[in-house]
Amino acid sequence: MHQVLLEHGFVSPKVAARRDELPRVAAFLVKPFDSGGGEGIELLHESWRPTARGCYFQERIAGVSCSAIFVGSEGGCRFLGGTRQLTGRASSDFAYAGSIGPYPFDDATFETLRRMGEVLQREFGLRGLFGVDFLLNEAGVWPVELNPRYTASVEVLELALGCSFIGEHARAFGTTELTEKLALPSWAYVGKRVLFASRSLVFPEISKTLSSSFDPVGFRELADIPSPGTEIGAGDPILTVFAHGATLIECDTRLQAILREWLQRLHQT
């Protein structure tokens, strides 16, 4: 991805397969090949030593962590929207912890992302939903990862925009069963955050309504709810909380409040 984007006039963080290939004028991250959600990423330091786990090196870029969602088809590529990525947990400063969106990109950023999606779709033959994680700063859009799949940001945008991106994915492959556009309720901004355990606990019996009901077009405050009695270790994910709001700030504030409420509630059991 790095070389393709440079050839088409985009900025891109420097990457290298070996430590001795790195320039000494920039900070770099060590990124394992076999990880997801930011797990295992660490800042390269002088005492770092290679392990049996394969990795590569990527320049560390300062900025707002974001994700853009696209759908590719034979006819081209559409930019569907983007989110701000919420990152960081006890085990890693770079681990994925949630998303909030749709993120209000300015016109120049929107156009850069639209063109970037078209280039990536064309050069790699991407079909269906795919996402690009990137850092956003005054210098522009710095893509750090390409995910050719349904990403963690998709459901946030679906809830916020009141549409089914799975239907868009199906149409990209010519599937007729899911071509009907769903009329879903929408909320201006939606956020989700993974709740991680600060200590070991056993998941309690909570409301049967929360743990068993499912409304495919409604808004649920909780998702990924464990079965009662599930043992959860310190630092492990417990469940996912959702919030919505009329503004990005309101949504983020509600999300943090719900997160604190459930963290306190579960750790008191």
What does this structure look like?
The chain folds into two domains: 120 residues, ATP-grasp fold, B domain (D-amino Acid Aminotransferase, Chain A, domain 1, 2-Layer Sandwich); 79 residues, Alpha-Beta Complex (Aldehyde Oxidoreductase, domain 3), CATH 3.90.1170. Helices cover 24% and strands 33% of the residues. The protein contains six helices and 14 strands. The longest helix has 20 residues. The chain is globular and about 55 Å long. The termini are far apart.
Relevant terms:
four-stranded antiparallel beta sheet, 269 residues, Aldehyde Oxidoreductase, domain 3, eight-stranded antiparallel beta sheet, alpha+beta, D-amino Acid Aminotransferase, Chain A, domain 1
Summary of the model, kept short:
The chain has 269 residues and is of the alpha+beta class. The chain contains six helices and 14 strands.
Could you list the spans in which at least 5 consecutive residues all have pLDDT below 50? none
Content of β-strand: 25-35%
The appropriate CATH architecture of the largest domain is 2-Layer Sandwich
Q: Give the ordered list of helices and strands.
A: HEEEEEEEHEEHHEEHEEEH
Total domains, how many? Answer: 2
The portion of residues assigned to helices is 10-25%
Q: What form results from the Cα inertia axes? A: globular
Report, as a whole number of angstroms, the end-to-end distance: 47 Å
Please compute the radius of gyration using only Cα atoms.
20 Å
CATH class of the largest domain: Alpha Beta
Q: Kindly report the name of the CATH homologous superfamily of the largest domain.
A: ATP-grasp fold, B domain
CATH topology of the largest domain: D-amino Acid Aminotransferase, Chain A, domain 1
Sketch the major β-sheet. Answer: 8 strands, antiparallel
Strand arrangement within the widest β-sheet reads 9-8-5-6-7-10-14-12
